[in-house]
Amino acid sequence: MDKERSKSILNKIFSSSIFYILPAIIMLALTTIFPFIFAVYLSFNRYDLRFIQREGVTFLGLTNFISLLNSSSFWASVETTIIYVGGALIAQIILGIALAMFLDSLKGPLQKIKSIIFIPMMLTPVVVATTFRLLYNYDFGLIGYIIESMGFIKFPWLAHPFYARIALIISDVWQWTPLITVITLGALQVVPDTLLESAELDGAGWLQKFRYVVLPIIMPIVGVGILLRFMDIVKFFDKIYVLTGGGPGMATETLTYHIYQIGFNFMRLGRAAAASILLLIGIIIISMLLVKFIVQPDVEV
Amino acid sequence: MKFNKKNIFKVIVILFILTWTLLPIVWIIMNSFKGGADITAYPPRIVFSPTVENYIQAFQGRQFRVRFFNSLFVASFNTLICLIAGTLGAYGFSRFKIKGKKHILFWIISTRMFPPVVASIPFFIIFNRIGLLNTRVSLIIAYISFNLPLVVWLMKGFIDDVPIAIEEAAQIDGANAFQVFFRVTLPLVKPGLAASAILSFIFSWNEFLFALILTSGRQTTLPVNITEYIRWGEGIFWGEISAVAVIILLPILLLSIFVQKPLVEGLSFRGIK
Questions:
Q1: pTM for the full model?
Q2: Fewer beta carbons below 10 Å: N end or C end of chain B?
């Protein structure tokens, strides 16, 4: 009798949705919502690790935010972020789509190349950065040698403010262009052949076919890829840490890196939290714009 | 004739793409087998007498072995936790009517938007308070924030594809809901489980920012190990650095060869439909 009852209770637990979803929801809440709320709390406070024993935590109101918005190094890092994200994202979109169109046109055994181009995505970013640091090396790097053997003069990439940014963008383009390619390749399967044929009959050239037939169909799907890339490039930290350390000067110090510096070099965790909230707001606004203009409103994300 | 020209152009482009993609990987592998003089030689040497000295040096490095173990330990346990909680969650979302399901699922996927640097500051303080700072456990917990959403979404896609009729048939045979999940549905989504496990493992294995901030010394992982070499003395250690780099890449290269298709699907977020 008792056994029957416990069995029926067990059955009830097993057939309720809570049993299945609760562990995941609790874990996610603890590792995402809770830190977020704590970061918001920190952003309104002075939390300086160097003086925490003596001063404790002091409520500051909006002081952290106001001081950041008046800080030239904050705005310098915003500018670097925009250049970096813009440059890397545009390069990856154009190269990624072009590469996908090319791969899509291949037939027979040549298609095997598709399984190779996605390898860089899996690799450890720190290792990729280390490899590029070796390639960029002024004294014995391969890239300098290639530049020299083409008749140009090699130069110290990572020591020059402009080229250091280019160097970072190249290393990110190398690793992540394949993501846009893979997504575009999937999207191209959706384009109906009949539509392309009728466009051809109407006398549309290669570019016109791409612009008026292919692009509108693939853009909502590719847009999701662009959105994912955008969010990842903003987060990006590892390659800067290894390749340039934010330098020379502050030339490659993006907002993410700036937050790391404020928080863990200068130990001002409250101020760093405030900067990270500003970063989050920026990401949300730009993501919404991307969804509105690229992913298109009728597509469910 | 024209046909041939077009093909030659295509082959040239393919060769360029292959070189562009593989050269950095081949280069770091080559360097890991070069002796000191061969690494710093200019022009760079393609022909050299290979040596395993760098690997021996790397393994003898003070903290290399313990950090290698830490990387394995953190990635394995994090993967296990995310796989269990994530698959259960995915099953719940796939099979049950849940109030506000769409919003919860959107929240789960939107946590990916949350930059790690935002979480790193509170994590640092919280783990410090509860005495978990500078432990491997702190990394296992922190990595849940990005691996669990991935597993939930990936597994939900796979479970959605399993016809409910199969489960209903088992239910008539007298199995309870959990038994149906465990004995009927789970075996059918093995490819999804494999993909989720491998992706979670790789993302944990590759992670750097949390490892840098939350751990150091004998508690930290291999990516931190490699950056320490670079900070200390790039000029002297390039051979060892290359060897460590290749050791870090090895499991990833092996894993990604075995499970290409699901990996690509996972990376491009198959869950978004």
A1: 0.90
A2: N
